[in-house]
């Protein structure tokens, strides 16, 4: 299991389209993906879970990835967030 703190760089945080992009990317991997914010931890492969965090621009979230392809998943997902959750 690996963890990494990342800052949400896009304008709206993890809402609607950016959340959908993240979930779509997370579902490409077999590893479990979680996002943690202020003590709340949600499934990073669930659009409802990700949007329920209410994460805004500039907030620091923690990505937690556990599984066979965890390193590759962490690299891609953290880069996606750091790059502002632009279209894949």
TrEMBL record:
Its main location: cytoplasm. The keyword DNA repair does not apply. The lineage of its organism: Bacteria, Bacillati, Bacillota, Tissierellia, Tissierellales. General (non sugar-specific) component of the phosphoenolpyruvate-dependent sugar phosphotransferase system (sugar PTS). This major carbohydrate active-transport system catalyzes the phosphorylation of incoming sugar substrates concomitantly with their translocation across the cell membrane. The phosphoryl group from phosphoenolpyruvate (PEP) is transferred to the phosphoryl carrier protein HPr by enzyme I. Phospho-HPr then transfers it to the PTS EIIA domain. The gene is crh. One of its GO terms (biological process) is phosphoenolpyruvate-dependent sugar phosphotransferase system. Transmembrane segments: none annotated. PROSITE patterns: PTS_HPR_DOM, PTS_HPR_HIS, PTS_HPR_SER. It comes from [Clostridium] ultunense Esp. The keyword Transmembrane does not apply. Residues 1-88 form the HPr domain. It is found in: Cytoplasm. InterPro entries: HPr, HPr-like, HPr-like_sf, PTS_HPr_His_P_site, PTS_HPr_Ser_P_site. GO terms for cellular component: cytoplasm. Signal peptide: none annotated. This is Phosphocarrier protein HPr. Keywords: Cytoplasm, Phosphotransferase system.
């Amino acid at each position: 299991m690996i963890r990494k703190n990342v800052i949400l760089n896009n304008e709206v945080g993890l809402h609607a389209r950016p959340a959908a992009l993240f979930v779509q990317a997370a579902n490409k991997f077999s590893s479990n993906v979680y996002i943690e914010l202020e003590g709340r931890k949600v499934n990073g492969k669930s659009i409802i879970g990700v949007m329920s965090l209410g994460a805004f621009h500039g907030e620091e979230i923690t990505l937690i990835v556990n599984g066979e392809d965890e390193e590759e998943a962490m690299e891609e997902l953290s880069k996606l967030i750091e790059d502002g959750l632009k279209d894949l």
